[in-house]
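User: I'm putting together notes for a lab meeting next week and I want to include a structural view of one of the chains we've been expressing. I don't have a solved structure, so I'd like a prediction I can at least talk through. The sequence is below, exactly as it appears in our construct file.
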Amino acid sequence: MQAVLMEIRQLRRDVQTAATTARRAQILIFRYQEQMVMVEKFGSVRSGPGTDDSTGKKSVKEISGSLQARVGDEKSGRSRAEL
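Assistant: Thanks for the context. Below is the predicted structure for the 83-residue chain, given as structure tokens.
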């Protein structure tokens, strides 16, 4: 009987671990999708400071960097109004 209980407890821990991992994966996918939307949105901005001379578009690296900075500010608790 003890062996069955131990097995059930181990299975419960395994299910909890799998659920947590799945939740984290969903969060990462959501963030990635949001970042791609922002890159597409800001990638179409033309003729501003920091644009690529040949296309007039901001580079993905620059847009990604500004998005990373915003995410970092949000994580540290700073709002856009404070910036």
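A couple of points you could mention at the meeting. Helices lie at 2-43, 60-75. The first helix runs from residue 2 to 43.

User: Perfect, that's what I needed.
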